[in-house]
Fold these 2 entries.
Entry 1:
Amino acid sequence: MKRANTFDVIPQSNEDEELLRRLLDASAALWNEINYERRENYADPDKDVWDISEYRGRYGGTLGASTVQQIERKNREAWNSFFSLKKKGEANSKPGYWGNSEDGRELRTYIRNTSYSVEWGEYSRLEILVGQDLKDEYGLGYRERLRLEVRGDPNWKEYKKQGRLELFYDEQAQTFRAFQPVTISEDHSRLAHPLASKEAALDIGANNLVACTTTTGQQLLYEGRDLFERFRETTREIARRQSLLEEGRYSSDRIRCLYDRRTKRRDHAQDALARDLIERLYEDGVSTVYVGALTDVLDTHWSVETNAKTHNFWAFRAFVNRLACTAEEYGISVEVRSEAWTSQECPNCGSTEDTIRHQDTLTCPCGFEGHADLSASETFLRRQTTVTRSMARPVCLKWDDHNWSESPRSVPNEEHTNPQVASVGR
């Protein structure tokens, strides 16, 4: 079974950090050279995309021959993906560059599974191979590797095989990070087993990313307005820069960098959300999580603007896969089911035609008034199972670029910003 460890990497001295940055920068330079040559070959009908120069002589002294090979292989995989999508007729663009020397390269590298080692313990460490030229310059012995501190508590310390290590500098967190694919046995696929057999339902939204209700009466709300606004700001900047391009051009290094930054910010927040949510549900004894199919929402009642930003931001399938992989660590199952009309259904009388939704508030002539997304998750849960517990005060969580933290203010169940809503049922 395939899994992955993600952990922070900390150089032990200024010299080690300088060496690491040079290694990553040289890797980016190599990627860009390989990619440029393949782009030129692609544009020339008489040339072969796969026929490229030998780069080990130029970069081997800095990176080591095995790392040169891994970066070339990673670039080959990117081009294979491009041709595969092109064959299917799906919109796609040629593999891009990892920044440039003028604006700064993206610090990233890939290290063969035999060219690094990780030791877990009280003082965990990562050792990676570097080229002989860098070893000589920084005083490393012939057989010595660059030793780096590892911070964090990776989930999969016992594995049958480790894969190619991805090592990069995270601009958002301003730290070096490593992504280690591993192969584990089925016996080690879980870190824990459910504490009970409770259930939970998730409503995925636009202004609030996830609203969750459990059969224990707990409700969680992950706010998304700030994240969406930053996503939209970057999208607008991309559109502005695209409008300034010369005729016939569709992208630039800066535009690709903005796309990359937008994606990384989104993925970072979603990764942390999945982890925070599953850990909370595990502690609450949840063994099954129901997720509403986003297509039901997009096809029913939301505005075009909301549909567009939700669809673009969420990458729904990727998020559900991320959620399911995290849940599996705790023995929790994730099931995607239809949630059509739950956001408009009154949890009190069941009406969908007479309810009025304005921003976060759902009201009904029967007298019900509550938070729309939390009500939707509760209605969705009641469609899947029996709920006998009354709901506790919701927990509202906000993103601070690193963690999801409980907000000191309560969930706005009683906000009345629309006069029509305020008057309904009174």
Entry 2:
Amino acid sequence: MNHDKLYQYNNKQRWKFLLFLFAALIAAASLFYTNYLVKSLSKSERTKAEVWAMSTRSIMTMPDVDDQFISYVYAVRDSLSIPAIITDSNGNIIFWRDLDPTKTNIKDQIDSANNSLEYDPVYFEKQLAKMKRNHAAIALPLDTGETWSVYYLDSLALRQLRVFPYLQLSLIAIFLIIAYTVFNSIKKSEQNLVWVGMAKEAAHQLGTPISSLMGWLELVRIKFDAEDDSSLNEMERDVKRLEVVADRFSKIGSIPSLSNQVVYRVIHDFVQYFKVRTSEKITFEITGDKSVEAKINIPLFDWIIENLLKNAVNAIESEGKITINIIDNIAKEEIFIDISDTGKGIPKSNFDAIFQPGFTTRKRGWGLGLSLTKRMVDYHQGQILVRESELGKGTTFRIILKSNLHYEPTQV
């Protein structure tokens, strides 16, 4: 692979990894700091629960004192704003705080005017069980030797704080995904415009010299009376091939005109042209269904086959074989075109990367062939993939096209 292009490709991958790592560090820092705040607030709420329990105990056990001190103790007790329950040594609920007032009615804790309120033991059991799962009990010893247990739940603010970083990171992730998708789409659109512009300009520039070459060939035939000269005929075929190439470039970016074609015949005609321009040490074989049809634009489809055959030839170092197998998948109404070679193979890690612009394993390659191939397969509403590959044994590319033949299930 060209070292400059390999460096650029690896550098691009490295930047992606660094950005992902940076995002992961931000997420980890956010979770760590939120966890620190949660722990701090949790300690503060536990202290509040202890203060509430002790103030409640003081109200129940303190001797007669002045009203001002009693008011102070009540104020301290009522300052707690989290759900809490106190049970005696037998597990009976004796005090509670900030529970649903419509389901609780403990003597001496509900205004006597609220006669419609009833004690709901099931509700209390559920709340007490939830508090026991949420936090360990706070032991509150009395002078009588009895020990009360204090249970409480986290405040709403603390519960929301636990969830906040995950919600925040989720929203940021969604925003980044949308932003990346939009910018990536814009970037691809710009790249497409550049590709289309370059392709059409190349087709335009090729037009004049190709026409000139055709004229010179006719003059040579007339001047030397060489109407049936094999060399000139072969030169004419190559010039016409240049016309086809120019036509291909002019079609990039436009919606191609597809027509119904026999796949075997189209591939066979191109292979006949291609193989005489390849080493005699490489043999070609076309197998499979000879009658299956698909919607094809012949100049663009020839380009697809040409790029894959060139890749196969380059993968074969000395001598080898290239096989094209055409399979009619009746069940899915698809056509599989498998192009196999006996070349050096492709590592599995590169199966997806080889279709990306700029990726190549050749020293003088630009990494555009397979990218263009994929684009032209997309024009045919098909797919292309590496079906299988083994280092040192060869590679099989698969093209999937929609079959033009529709099969109706037979009725018994």
